[in-house]
Write a structure and sequence with these properties.
This protein is of the alpha/beta class and 211 residues long. It is built from five helices and ten strands, in the order E-H-E-E-H-E-H-E-H-E-E-E-E-H-E. The strands form two sheets. An eight-stranded mixed beta sheet has the order 3-2-1-4-5-6-10-8, with helices on both faces. A two-stranded parallel sheet has the order 7-9. The structure holds NADP nicotinamide-adenine-dinucleotide phosphate.
Length: 211
C-alpha cells in the first residue's frame, strides 16, 4: 500500500513510518522539514496540514493517510483548526484518513466521567493538549465527507517495546487491574498499520491499550 504519514518526524509519526516501512509499504513521510535517515521504502516530503492544497496533492498519492500531528507547546489550541484543513484537503481525494488524537474524550470506567476531567489521567501540564484533543474529536465527529477514524491512545502513551499485541476499545478508556491505562508508541503504530491494512472502523473512534 501507499501510506502517507503527516507529522512523520514526531514520536508517533516516526514509529508509524518505521512500522509501515518494515511491512513493505511505500511510505510518504511528510513533515514540515525534510527528514533524514528514513527506511529505504520511505520518501521524505514537505507538507503542513494547514495547507489544504498540499494535503490534497499528497493525499492523492496515497491509499491511506495517517495524521500524527501535534502543535508545539503553547499552540495546542491550533489543533482543531489544523484538523479542519487536513479534512478539507483529504476530502476531494476520497483517501481514507486515520487521525491520531487524544484520550481526552474517553469515558473513565469507574466514574463515567471524561478522561480530560480526571486528574488521575490528565495532570495540569497536559490539560491544554487534552482540551485540544477534545475539540479535534468534535471536528471529526462532524465530518461527513471523509472516511475518517479517530484513534485515541491510552492515557499513557510512552516510547517502549514493540510487542505486536494490543487491546482495542470504543469510547471507554482501557485500563489494567491497577487502573493504569498504557500503550507503547511502538504498539500504537502496530495498531495504526493494522487498521490501515484491514479497515475495521469508519467515521468512529477506537482506543488502543497494551494487551
Ligand atoms: N495519551 C494521549 O492521549 C496522547 C499522548 C501523546 C500524544 N497524543 C497525540 O498523538 C498525536 C501525535 O503526538 P506526538 O506525541 O507524536 O507529538 P510530537 O512528537 O510532538 O510530534 C508531532 C509532530 O507534528 C508535527 N506538526 C505540528 N504541526 C504541524 C502541521 N501544521 N503540519 C504538519 N506537521 C505538524 C511536528 O512537526 P514540527 O517538528 O515541524 O513541529 C511533529 O513532528 C497528537 O494528536 C497528540 O495529541 C496523545
Amino acid at each position: 500500500m501507499r501510506i502517507a504519514v503527516f507529522g512523520a518526524g514526531g514520536s508517533v509519526g516516526s514509529r508509524t513510518v518505521a512500522e509501515a516501512a518494515a511491512r513493505g509499504h511505500k511510505v510518504l513521510a511528510i513533515a514540515r522539514k525534510r527528514l533524514a535517515g528514513l527506511p529505504g521504502n520511505a520518501e521524505t516530503r514537505i507538507g503542513d496540514v494547514t495547507d489544504t492544497a498540499a494535503v490534497e496533492r499528497l493525499s492523492g498519492e496515497a491509499d491511506v493517510v495517517i495524521s500524527a500531528v501535534r502543535p508545539p507547546q503553547g499552540l495546542e489550541h491550533q489543533q482543531a483548526a489544523a484538523t479542519k484543513t487536513l479534512l478539507d484537503g483529504v476530502a476531494p481525494t476520497g483517501t481514507r484518513l486515520l487521525i491520531v488524537g487524544g484520550a481526552a474524550t474517553l469515558r473513565v470506567p469507574d466514574t463515567g466521567g471524561l478522561v480530560m476531567d480526571d486528574p488521575r489521567y490528565v495532570q495540569a501540564p497536559w490539560r491544554a493538549i487534552a482540551a485540544a484533543g477534545a475539540e479535534q474529536h468534535e471536528v471529526c465527529r462532524g465530518e461527513k465527507r471523509v472516511d475518517w477514524v479517530y484513534v485515541s491512545p491510552s492515557a499513557n502513551l510512552v516510547p517502549g517495546e514493540r510487542t505486536g499485541r494490543y487491546r482495542i476499545g470504543g469510547d471507554e478508556l482501557l485500563t489494567d487491574e491497577q487502573g493504569d491505562s498504557r500503550i507503547s508508541v511502538e504498539d500504537l503504530a502496530v495498531a495504526l498499520i493494522d487498521e490501515a491494512e484491514s479497515p475495521r472502523h469508519h467515521r468512529t473512534r477506537f482506543t488502543v491499550a497494551a494487551a
